[in-house]
């Protein structure tokens, strides 16, 4: 394996954390592995999924396993940027009060911030959140608040489109991954969810997750050690560069999608930041698999979730992003030669 004692111990705990989440929310094993990779890569995550599939339970369970403070905000049409920073009210003595809002209430202890239905919030709210995500800091009350352990998880409502604001490309690019939360179609799993009373009490399920298993305060240090401990080579570096080029000029690699003019499909492919995030996530995948050398399969395993939302389509094709994104990333992986 080639890892020192600390990294081996953390890998054991990471896999235990994964098992605990799989025991808390059934039928989401692939999504949970991706979520674990994102946590260990210190990246923010955009979740896609219908209502009632376990997103909130999963994130509450993950927050318990990480320790630190957890906050949740509901995206609404009337939510304003200041609502994340402070809220005003009249106290029992009839005097006006100003209290810290969800982003700054816990200060540096904030670990998991869940923004539910982010596309219902106004662009001004997105802008404020963008800075907190990019810099893990925020200015308020003449004070600079820093959030060294912050990871943002946002859910996008894809069923109802009234009064929604789609995230601009700059906002999407701040998310390390976009993960689809779609339960396994197995009837056995769905019968357990429907009839096993254990899964009817979300609070009890979450309480069964060991608290602070992946200590949020140590996580940034371990994440850096993982990145430094996984080796790459010239063949892997060339493979990554070809993946990048294929997202910009798929026609040069012979990639074609049915019914799509490939010359009029893409405005811009994956950015250098996007490709560095791909390598970052893939290194965590390799570490979880017990390998000290990055492999093409590690990169392929996270390629769609890291890259698809970073590809900018022309306006006419943007309306079909969900379908075209998956089709394009699949075609890239089929076409680019594996070293």
Question: Can you describe what's shown?
Answer:
The chain has 339 residues and is α/β, with parallel strands linked by helices. The chain is 45% helix and 16% strand. The chain folds into two domains: 212 residues, Rossmann fold, CATH 3.40.50; 106 residues, Magnesium chelatase subunit I, C-Terminal domain (Helicase, Ruva Protein, domain 3, Orthogonal Bundle), CATH 1.10.8. The protein has a five-stranded parallel sheet with strand order 2-5-8-1-9. A hairpin with a 5-residue loop joins strand 3 and strand 4. Helix 11 crosses helix 12. The chain is globular and about 70 Å long. The chain starts with a helix and ends with a helix. The mean pLDDT is 88.
Q: What topology emerges from the helices and strands here?
A:
Layout: H1 5-24, H2 29-40, E1 44-48, H3 55-66, E2 69-74, H4 82-85, E3 86-90, E4 96-100, E5 110-116, H5 123-135, E6 137-140, E7 143-146, E8 151-156, H6 169-172, E9 175-180, H7 187-195, H8 202-207, H9 219-229, H10 234-248, E10 266-268, H11 272-288, H12 296-307, E11 312-313, H13 315-318, H14 321-335
Helix pairs in contact: 1-2, 11-12, 12-14
């Amino acid at each position: 394996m080639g890892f020192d004692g600390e990294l081996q111990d953390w890998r054991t705990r990471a896999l235990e954390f994964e098992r605990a989440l799989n025991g808390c929310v059934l039928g989401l094993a692939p999504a949970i592995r991706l979520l674990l990779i994102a946590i260990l890569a210190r990246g923010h995550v955009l979740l896609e999924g219908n209502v009632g599939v376990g997103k909130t339970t999963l994130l509450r369970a993950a927050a318990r396993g990480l320790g630190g403070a957890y906050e949740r905000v509901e995206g609404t049409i009337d939510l304003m940027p200041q609502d994340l920073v402070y809220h005003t009210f009249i106290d029992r003595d009839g005097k006006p009060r100003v209290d810290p809002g969800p982003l700054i209430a816990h200060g540096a202890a904030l670990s998991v911030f869940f923004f539910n239905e982010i596309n219902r919030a106004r662009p001004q709210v997105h802008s404020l959140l963008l800075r907190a995500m990019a810099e893990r800091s925020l200015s308020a009350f003449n004070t600079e608040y820093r959030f060294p352990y912050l990871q943002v998880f946002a859910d996008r409502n894809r069923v109802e489109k009234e009064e929604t604001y789609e995230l601009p490309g700059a906002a999407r690019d701040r998310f390390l991954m976009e993960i689809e939360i779609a339960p396994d179609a197995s009837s056995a799993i769905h019968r357990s969810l429907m009839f096993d009373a254990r899964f009817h009490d979300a609070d009890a399920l979450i309480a069964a997750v060991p608290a602070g298993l992946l200590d949020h305060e140590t996580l940034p240090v371990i994440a850096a050690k993982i990145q430094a401990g996984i080796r790459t080579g010239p063949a892997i570096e060339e493979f990554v560069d070809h993946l990048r080029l294929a997202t910009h000029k798929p026609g040069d690699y012979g990639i074609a999608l049915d019914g799509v003019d490939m010359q009029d499909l893409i405005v811009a492919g994956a950015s250098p930041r996007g490709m560095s995030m791909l390598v970052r996530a893939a290194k965590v995948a390799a570490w979880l698999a017990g390998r000290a050398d990055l492999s093409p399969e590690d990169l392929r395993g996270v390629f769609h979730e890291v890259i698809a939302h970073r590809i900018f389509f022309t306006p006419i094709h943007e309306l079909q992003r969900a379908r075209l994104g998956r089709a394009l990333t699949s075609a890239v992986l089929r076409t680019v030669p594996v070293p």
